[in-house]
Structures
1.
Amino acid sequence: MTHEHPALSLHGLAKRFDTKIAVAGVDLDVPTGSFYGLLGPNGAGKTTTLSMAVGLLRPDAGQARVLGYDVWGDPVHAKSLLGVMPDGVRLFDRLSGAELLAYHGLLRGMDPAVVDQRAAELLDVLALTDAGRTLVVDYSAGMKKKIGLACALLHGPRLLVLDEPFEAVDPVSAALIRDILHRYVVGGGTVVFSSHVMEVVERLCSHVAILAEGRIKRVGTLDEVRGARSLEEVFVEVVGGRTATGQELSWLSR
Amino acid sequence: MAVPVTAPERPARRVSARHFVRLKLRVLGNNFRGQGWRIALFIVGVVIGLWAATGGFFALAAPGLADEPRYALMVAAFGGGLLVLGWLLLPLVFFGVDETLDPARFALLPLSRRTLVTGLYAAALVSVPVLATLIAVAGLVVTAGALGGWAAALVAAVGAVAGLLLCVASARAVTSAFATMLRSRRVRDLAAVLLASLAALLGPLQIVVVAAVSRADWDRLTGVARVVGWTPFGAPWTAGIDVAEGRAWAAVLKLLITVLAIGALLYWWSRSLESAMVGAANAGPARNQRGTVGTAVAQLFPRAVGWARRDRFGALVARECRYWWRDARRRANLITIAVVGIFVPVMVNLGGARFAAGAGAEAGFSVTGESSPVLVSLSMIFVGVLATVTLANQFGFDGNAYAANVVAGVPGRLELRARMTAFSIYVVPLLGVVAIVVATVLGHPGWLGAMAGALLAAYGTGLAINGFVSVLGGYALPETSNPFAMNTGAGVAKSLFTLVSMIASAVAAVPILVAAALLGEVWLWLALPVGLAYGLGAALLGAYLAGDALDRRQPELLAVVTPRR
């Protein structure tokens, strides 16, 4: 029955911090099986929106539904279908990679034997087996992203929400992450991720939404949004960047 | 409008300590912006500081005000020495140091080590405890002035300021050095043991001192005070007394000793500062431990948790257990519990009895008869409550890593029960050792049951109360590698939450004390089972009720324990 519902549906989500309005009413429908890119400049409200969508931050107004289950009204069902990799959030990083995966697996109520088998497989595929018993706190940035992704994937969620999965990741790891996400979508999963790297979004996504100043400015399939132009042109136009005149910062050149 | 690119740059302006002080004041001010409760907490802190300062002032000024010159040296040497000792040890064991200006933030700036140390030192002087200490030691100036006139007062004032500088320098140097040691993987366990034994030494030392005080006559004490006066602990404070007693040369030497001590401490601090600056950027070499043993789940569970089912509860307990050992901040707290657990009951039951007995009592160590099951139970309740105060900000230890539990939708009751269990795996054996050691030291093995019962009851109620406090009053800890660092203003918040939770836990444990007082001999047998049941019941009830509150405010809790960046 969940197939009748969009994988993720946000309705009127809004959040204000003190006097600053971070998100001013976001409506978004993420179709099941789509690869959805949430684009936006720094400070646009991407992280705030995704945090409210997955139950990490209580919205001032609005609703978030995962495959029809209300994230704030029925968190148990919604969260069991959801895999999340937040950005700028520490993992329980004084565990080793394997320990962290075991923790996440058991926390999701999985069978220990299944946890062991999947954890070994994930560590192997993500090339983290070599790290052995090194604590996650000592991992490199790319390795941390990979183990974070593994934690989000471990319980086989139907919807994967990733905040900046390609930030601070080297090209090799990025390619690996892309490959795994692609296979996940082909296998029937849905991915929503935020980014401000146009190339990645253009290459991967079937759908795109551009978020700026807490509002959705453009939304649709990739082709609908970019039309005949490049995604970067559309993005800069929507966000309203400035172009350099060549006069300022002249002291930078010697 | 463009400046010619080849124009010679003006030499960079010198950075002085003034900039650091202004930076600290600005950071403090910005912290208050729009945060009414922070201002309120700050004012409470100031009031408490002033209250303590006034008490200290009159204590130190008493010999001068009462015109009792023969006590002057003793009060200055012992009072001042305790002050230095307090500044040296309290940040390490209880309060932490204010890291408003985290040294790691200056790592990239082109500052010489000398500039940095003097700057951070000057900034460290801008704080409420420093102001309170300054007011208190002004009492010494009054004493010296009353006994020796203006010259003595002037020297005492110089000495007091120098002594204050010594206090701050020692606090900074010692915490920084220990932080460096705790960070380093090689010596951190050594550092923990060292810290524990250092603080544990206070216990026996205190017994010896108390025994000496009640045994020795005033002449002998004056002799000790004279010796202390020539160490850095007493030198700055007694210089004024020396002038009043006509030994100006001694005053000069003592000030010299103080200055040398400050210099040495600052040098020591500057050495460890460098590693603190680099340490945050690269927290030690990534040791690649190969050779995996067992499967992922088998690795997660330490041997002590081997009994647990491999389910959600087991995973939470196992992870908490790992964290109590692997997180330097948590481990520092465990060490504190061990130290205080032994120190306080011994002090209350031996020292307290001795003080109560007064100077008239005969000398010797045969004081065991003066303690009682009630007094012992009281001190055990204190230890049990104190142990659980560590959990008052248990979610703050995790920071935003707690998001993993929120995303997984861990039920609040399960979460709290697991945290209590994991903490108890460390602390209950520790408390058992405390009960046995104290019973042995007191020479009353028969009281063991009563003591263990009171301990467990207080521990259980403490777990329950602190479950609530941690859910409702969590706050963020700074993300530095210094386990002693506190956020600005968090010191007062920490003290207040600690105080509230301690009072509440102690009140909840009062029935046990009443039973100990009323039931007499029977209680010695009943205490253990009753205390165990009482404590267990309280803890479970606490987890049940506080877990409900946690379910309702999981995201809010996550927000308040997330460090601001």
Note: Chain A has a mean pLDDT of 89.
2.
Amino acid sequence: MDKRADGRKADEMREIEAKVGVIKRADGSALFKIGDTIAIAAVYGPRELHPRYLQNPETGILRCNYDMASFSVTERKKPGPNRRGVEISLVTEKALLPAVDLSQFPNAVVDVFVEIVQANAGTRCAGITAASLALAHAGIPMKDMVAAVSAGKINGKIYVDLSKDEEDVEDATDIPVACTARTKKITLLQLDGNITKKELIEALILAKSSCEKINKIQEKALLEFYRQNE
Amino acid sequence: MTSKLLVKEKEIVIPGQELAEGLDYLPSHGSFREGNKIISNFLGLASINERFIKVIPLTGRYNPKINDLIIGKVSDIGFYGWTLDIGCAYNAVLSIRETSGFIERNDDLTKHYDYGDLVVAQIIKVTKQKQIDVTTKGPGLKKLIGGKIIEVTPSKVPRMIGKQGSMITMIKDATKCNVIIGQNGRVWIKGETLDKEILATKIIMKIEQESHIEGLTDKIKEMLQEKE
Amino acid sequence: MNNEYIISLIKENKRIGERKLDEYRDIEITYDVSKNAEGSARCKIGDTEVIAGVKMDIGTPYPDSKDEGVIIVTAELSPIASPLFELGPPGSWATELARVIDRGIRESKAIDFKKLCIKEGEKVWMIFLDIYPINDSGNLIDASVLAALAALKSAKMPKLEDDKVVYGELTNEKLKLNKMPVTITFGKINDKIIVDPDLKEEEVLDARLSISIHDGDIHAMQKGGNEGMTIEDIEEMIDIAVKKEKELKGALK
């Protein structure tokens, strides 16, 4: 039973591609592709924060916006924000915040924009992973890097990086997880489905080790960027 | 517990990367201590100076520091003096008191520095709230007239200036251009001819792109000799 | 900050990046950049980058054109592409951009809308053309039009079952484009005319004119900028546009 529809093993992620510096006007930017999901992230900042009532005199704030291109999904999504996007924007911010240090930027904002250009499940995770690369590229002081991937349960077995087809299986449980590289803390955790504690722990352990693999790819992408001028 | 360096001098490091362990090493700019380890805040170059480990960031907007020479653009004028945009999240304030030249009580301040004027100034104070005070009292501090401005990554500025100004002097001599480099990544170039300004611009951009590569100085020398 | 510098360069027929006054930056078009779209393409002009996606659905025709399909063009100026774009509903620039793209396609009759009719008065194909700039380094109009044409030209009709679209399954039938109305955008700085203004030139230009052209026929025009132009300016621009059309069409192959 162990091979998945696309031939992957249970603990195998889809093919990954990561690139830094893809948007020239942004202070930092990155592309993260996993299977057929493509996320682009841009970072602008630290910059002045308007409106003023949002300013925090003690520290800079992190503001994230997640958006899916209308044509990124099989049934067209009307351009513009929707409730799902608002929620994902929020959890993206929470996933990245523990890794950044904005104490040097009172009253300022670091804006992170994630755009999904092509969607095949795992989009919020791809967005968070791309955003972490973009923050590093932008020179935002960070304490850690963040990677994210979804784990899931289908028919009683635990898998990592569910594709859309797998997500759509009846009673599949989808668990997006983000993890910091060095301190290995979980900064994003969501779940929808039906799962026992034992299964969940197994999924989290699998997600964590997969995030570590993604961290290595992130490191490579950052060093690549530096070297491309040689 | 013995202390150990985990990176080499001028090694490229990423945020969250462990640079050293043990209490003998101390964090400096761009790094921090967590428990037993010294960790990098940035994507950049590790630099070790005896017990201090710092990381020079490859990228990032300008972080204002006291004594920095900066090139600011007048964005607002008030009873206090001028507000300058210096290319980061915070503006600098040039008060009347800190301005070179004599300003009478009811003078029209725009006659001194007008909206949009470019000014070379020096930072004399940065508060925790990032209120920045600058002065134009001092040698070389003035309004800039003519010429052009290029924007480069602030972390590349030391390389463009060179040890004791060696790089910037070489560029100025070879292109016969006047060049002023602000720590905030703004570079002002004024030459006798447009072509000379274009050459100086090319050199600065090359340094911007290849600042971390060995043999850059020789490459630049070649570029300058070719054009003569 | 560089306004005077750019003007002084242009006086000597020079531009940043050593371009000639009538020269485009490097143009690169990539097809099929988004698999879930019925058609998609990315166009880069220099550092400016735009992605266009085509999605199709069945809908009811407009009452005054009962036997014609429908195209709806939207431009999403995401803040990802520029520090000057803000979140929120389309502003005037996004609206202008979408309408300029739409006009070029519509007025040139590039699409035969009658062929998109399934049942007169009841069911027609609706084409959603969505434009997403990814990086604005000047001249979004030309890059968007090229991305749009590339996306439309390579778009495949989705499968229909019982008059409902089966998403994810494409037929091999292409959405036919009869014309390729490329757009050439000009800037006027002092008295000089330049083609394909980049970011810094856009900030300085006195006037801007975009010309949508196919086989020498002009199908749409849009003037922007705060200053005026002379008829001579416009004549000069049209002459250059006729010459440039070939180059842009070549990039679409």
Note: The first strand of chain B starts at residue 4 and ends at 5.
